[in-house]
UniProtKB/TrEMBL annotation:
The chain crosses the membrane at residues 12-35, 47-65, 225-249, 255-276, 288-307, 313-339, 351-372, 378-396. This is MFS transporter. Coiled coil: none annotated. Keywords: Cell membrane, Membrane, Transmembrane, Transmembrane helix. It is found in: Cell membrane. It is a multi-pass membrane protein.
């Protein structure tokens, strides 16, 4: 990947750790709802609550963690959050084996994993900037993106087979092991990471919890990108949840057909991620963001026309292929653009605020669109989400801005010289 561009041994360990955890995540795709339905016999309301409440509460728990992590070494935080997710997930198969698994436990584990996930993502962005030069950030993010889409293709089918052979909690065990492998990989990156210095050695204050949002909203480039991604992701996930209801219910598709409809188009994400760097090099990151960010909004409205049979399946696959290809290009360019626009001493707080907001908006819109589908039907609700998505390109940054031109940025900590 990346045309043989070398980023060093330490990045290689981080990349391997990311691949292990991404594969585990996709092996366990849909595991919690499946366990809730098949093992705990939960109804639709509880299954929806498991996703929405777990995500929302996890996001709230993660709010104070961003400012706290900002002024600590990131590698120990990454290892710790991996181990927390590993231990939390392992409580599920243990409780299942003992016959004491409950819905409350599933919900609590979902909250812990969600909070740890947000914290990990925020800290990993800051850590990445210490491992690779600024000019290689796009290469690194493209490799992460291509790995994510590769595991999306292979993970769910393998996870489905594992569940069929070994039972409903098998993929949860695999996901827990993947976080352990990720922790070991990050630990193996080695090197000396400087401890970030807190200005004036001040104690964490209540007002510091909002620093990430203040920073984003004060920046004329980050602000529109922030609103664009939160709204786009939220509406897309809300529509995807209803598409599952439509395809698996009224249209009569089998679970393997539903999985195939999303696994095969993920190849488009792999292709898009490989084109991200050449396109950004030729046309500029800002132009790629605006053009591809606009194109990705055109596809989802087509899902409202999904019908039964082979034609309907091919329609979903075609729409998802176009959408995922655009997301594959957009993702690494967007991640790099955001890192470049954020001062080194603000990265963790900024990324944490970004993730918290995105998860909270997704949970809110998923719940709202579930209620809307109850009133108007899933097809109409999917169509409405698609129409609103057509307006999201208006929130993309209108003008390019130079990197690191962020407001109120303190001197950045020295990069790791190892």
């Amino acid at each position: 990947m990346g045309n043989g561009h070398r980023l060093g041994r330490r990045f290689g360990w981080l990349w391997g750790a990311y691949g292990a955890s991404a594969l585990g995540t996709w092996l366990a795709f849909g595991a919690f709802p499946l366990i809730a339905i098949q093992v705990l016999h939960a109804g639709p309301a509880k299954v929806a609550a498991l996703s929405a409440v777990g995500t929302a509460v996890g996001a709230a728990v993660a709010v104070p963690l961003g400012p706290w992590v900002e002024f600590r070494r990131k590698r120990p935080v990454l290892v710790a959050t991996d181990l927390v997710r590993c231990v939390a997930l392992l409580t599920i198969p243990v409780a299942f084996a003992c016959g004491v698994l409950s819905f409350v436990q599933l919900l609590l584990v979902a909250v812990v994993v969600s909070a740890a996930d947000i914290t990990f993502r925020a800290a990993s962005g800051a850590y990445l900037k210490t491992l690779v030069p600024a000019e290689d950030l796009l290469v690194a993010n493209a490799r992460f993106e291509s790995t994510a889409w590769t595991t999306t293709v292979v993970g769910p089918p393998l996870g489905g087979a594992a569940i069929g052979l070994l039972g409903p909690v098998a993929t949860v065990v695999a996901d827990a092991v993947s976080y352990l492998l990720s922790a070991l990989g990050i630990r193996a990156t080695g090197g000396r990471e400087p401890r970030p210095e807190r200005p004036q050695a001040a104690r964490l204050r209540a007002g510091d919890l909002l620093d990430g949002w203040r920073y984003i909203l004060a920046d004329p480039t980050l602000r529109p990108l922030f609103f664009n991604t939160a709204l786009f992701n939220g509406l897309l996930m809300a529509a995807d949840a209803l598409l599952a209801v439509l395809m698996l219910g009224r249209l009569g598709f089998s679970p393997w057909q539903y999985g195939l409809a999303f696994a095969v188009p993920s190849i488009g994400g792999l292709l898009g991620s490989r084109l991200a760097r050449p396109l950004a090099t030729r046309f500029g990151a800002h132009r790629v963001l605006v053009v591809v960010g606009g194109l990705r909004a055109l596809w989802p409205v087509g899902l409202a026309f999904t019908g039964p049979g082979t034609g309907g399946l091919l329609l979903v696959m075609g729409v998802e292929l176009g959408l995922i290809f655009c997301c594959g290009v957009f993702g690494p360019v967007y991640a790099t653009y955001r890192l470049e626009r954020t001062a080194n001493d603000r990265i963790t707080r900024t990324l944490s605020a970004w993730s918290v907001t995105t998860k909270a908006v997704t949970a809110l819109l998923t719940a709202a669109w579930g209620a809307l589908a109850g009133l108007l039907g899933p097809r109409t609700a999917i169509g409405l989400a698609g129409v609103l998505l057509l307006a999201t390109p208006l929130l993309l940054p209108r003008r390019a801005a130079p990197p690191h031109a962020a407001p109120e940025s303190a001197p950045a900590p020295a990069p790791d010289g190892a």
